[in-house]
TrEMBL record:
The organism of origin for this protein: Sediminibacterium roseum
Residue(s) carrying 4-aspartylphosphate: 55
Response regulatory domain segment(s): 3-116
Superkingdom of source: Bacteria
The protein's name: Response regulator transcription factor
Gene3D superfamilies: 3.40.50.2300, LytTr DNA-binding domain (2.40.50.1020)
Classification via PANTHER family: STAGE 0 SPORULATION PROTEIN A HOMOLOG, TRANSCRIPTIONAL REGULATOR-RELATED
Keyword line: Phosphoprotein
Domain HTH LytTR-type: 144-243
Keyword field contains Lipid metabolism: no
InterPro entries named in the record: CheY-like_superfamily, LytR-like, LytTR_DNA-bd_dom, Sig_transdc_resp-reg_receiver
Length: 249
């Protein structure tokens, strides 16, 4: 059995999630429900859960603040949240898991299965990335955690030269001619990096604007990147790209 704990300030949400788990994930044992995050640390110390379902928006102390107060974090976390684009972006940046409220049974089962299939605990650096993203949202030299078939790769954002779509995966080309295939769509990567100098220049490509060395004219044209690669530009994105490259024109 997987020992788990639910932390959510709404009693109904706690009970609804517990019922969903009992019906759909019988190998998850909820050892405690907590509706006041100020009592969560004591409950965690008492029950020593393997998995915590953690609400983000709570009075007195939100989920991120609770995690920051725990050293070390000796359990896996699945965040539960109402739609909050910024919070979700921060969680994606750290490659941690989350569920949208109201929690869907199928998504809950998938999240629990993902937890069961993990061969190693979340890295401290994943939590570092999450908390730094929350406390320093404008930090340019951020790191990002990327899920690959071999595990997590944690890299500086600005090491990414360009990204290309491959069905439900994205291929990242990095400095030093490294390539990573990650289990995220290009749309998700675009949303995660919108605070950084990246631009979607084609349905299949997004580039680091700082790594463009040349623009070649054409119907849409193409750009030459710092590694010498040529990346196509769509007609619909051409004007926006030229504005970004030459804002005073």
């Amino acid at each position: 059995m997987i020992k788990a704990l639910i932390i959510d300030d709404e009693t109904y949400s706690c009970q609804a999630l517990q019922t969903l788990l009992q019906r759909n994930c019988p190998d998850v044992e909820i050892t405690a429900l907590c509706t006041d995050p100020r009592h969560a640390a004591a409950l965690i110390a008492e029950h020593k859960p393997q998995l915590v379902f953690l609400d983000i928006e709570m009075p007195h102390m939100n989920g991120f603040e609770l995690l920051a107060s725990l050293t070390p974090v000796g359990f896996e976390v699945i965040f539960t949240t109402s739609y909050d684009q910024y919070a979700i972006k921060a969680i994606r940046f750290s490659a941690l898991d989350y569920l949208m409220k109201p929690v869907d049974a199928a998504e809950l089962k998938t999240a629990v299965e993902t937890f069961k299939q993990k061969t190693a605990p979340s890295l401290p650096s994943q939590l570092d990335i999450l908390l730094s993203k929350i406390t320093q949202p404008a930090k340019v030299q951020a790191r990002i955690a990327l899920p690959t078939s071999e595990g997590l790769q944690i890299i500086p954002v600005m090491d990414i030269l360009y990204c290309s779509s491959s069905s439900n995966y994205t291929i990242l080309t990095l400095k030093e001619k490294q390539k990573l295939t990650i289990s995220r769509t290009l749309k998700e990567i675009e949303e995660m990096l919108d605070e950084h100098p990246f631009l979607r220049i084609h349905n299949s490509y997004m580039v680091n604007l700082n790594e463009i060395k040349r623009y070649i004219r054409g119907e849409g044209g193409s750009v030459v990147m710092s590694d010498g690669a040529s990346v196509d530009v769509s007609r619909s994105r051409k004007e926006l790209l030229l504005q970004k490259l030459n804002p005073g024109r």
